[in-house]
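Re: weekly structure request thread

Next one in the queue (558 aa):
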Amino acid sequence: MGALGILLVCRAIDEHTALSGFASDSVIVSGIQDILIVGLMQSGFVTWIVQTFLGRPSKYLMSLLRLCFPVSLLSAVMDNGTVTSMFVNIVKMWSRKIKTAPSMLLMPVAYVALLGGSLTILGSASNIVLSGLYTENTGVRLNVFEITLPGLFCFATGVIAMYFLHKSLPERGTSDEAFANASEYTVELLVPTENAAVGSTVAESGLDNVPGGRLIEIVRFDKEVISPVPAEEFILGGDRLVYAGEVDEILNLRRTNGLVNANHHVFSLSEVDRSRRLRTGYIKYGSPLIGKKMEDTSFESDNNLTLVAVSRKGERIRQSPREIVLEPGDSLLIECPPKGGKDSAALSRSLQFFESDDTIVVGRKTVIAPIIITLMLLLQATGVLTLLQAVLLAALAMILTGCATTTQAREGIGFGTLIVIACAIGFGKAIQENGLAEVAARAFVKLSAGSPFLLLALLSLGAILLTTFLNDMVAAAVFFPVVYQCTMLADCNVLPFVLATMLSVNASYASPYASPVNLAVFAPGGYTFMDFVKFGVPMSLVQLASILFIIPLLYPLN
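Done, posted below.
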């Protein structure tokens, strides 16, 4: 939006071009698809898929294959970022059962979701964007299965490559493991009745903070739980003060302030007050908490929670958690009400949670939801309905059959993502109208020396490189005008080049920031940027080779 605003102020584009993306079919289809995703999840279909196919494999290859089917099947009809987020917690629990480090499975799950997203037009937002732009420029509507054949080939080569490359994956602990021994660094101290602090406020007594830690809760009369603790809260005799931080410093506070040990430690992950609980949240890319210290924000009081600890790259940071400058991917151990805070919607804008409080029952709706999706795909594939008409009808059917309520449907729509798509489409049109796309296209055509195959190779490589630095949805919208101009200048068939671009922007493996799919596993897997480079670059090269083999084989380039 900022980029479009600058172009608009500088009069490089007009209002119609800037806002054209908001009226695009691609944006509407992506929004309605979110309702279909909610229906599949709430109906119990996803739960049934997981329970049916995971099992207890004894070898890594079998673990990978068992993950491939449910993840790729769901990614073919659901947004692959959503699928990955759903499987993060599933894989973390499953990895314990099969005695495999989660870091050996989470990145492959993300890559399988990206590969599965290449099996249909609905598999990823970038596919929907490119399909919409193709129709807008050529007048030809793509079949939802148009990309399936080349997508299946790339999927097969990608899974084989992952198996041979899996030794480059790190065997690393997760942030949950870093928090697993929370009782070792959270201490409960009792205020004696005749203590000097009795009658003073928390701030006046100096009991609110300790070096390397802080007061996170007061338990009063063994019933009342005060958390977060305001500075003006009075200390009473018999109060139990719960501190998080460096144990040595907390015990030193005990000695200097005349406190005594309470009966036991609190906040082991298996022992939390029934009215509150511990959750692990991950700092989203773009979160307003990035670059800030928790003590400088009102985040805790606004959301009725307390920060207990911070983990980075799978290891807990041993300093006062509220004094840590937060970074994307940091894992926060927070203590909060059962539902996560006073305003769960506001909380979710800053943190990503992967666990769910909802109990989803497998039953009659578990059969109805996939039938609706199947009929939707068939009606579009046979040309009876357009993609927009098909997803609208399917979303209505999900609500009428009770697979999703109207509230769940409304709350399930990712408006932030839709704004990104709309702005990216507008920016792509700006590139096309101002001639920048043609300048870039002439450079590509010149480098190809008249060879359609070489042009395909250059454009596919360009799309993969662009996706390494840009979100895949943005890369798709921005790069399409260049691809289209290239086919016009070189007198080539547009379709194979657009399909190759779809496959290329989905091959966003080499950076954690290239796709929401990669970001979803970045913090939970305890990965570093270089982990994605080591595993992702070879994967990208394999995909590039697969694209250049299968696309000319299935489609004439000119």
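The chain has two domains: 2-174+371-554, 181-261. The longest helix spans residues 529-554.
Next request, please.
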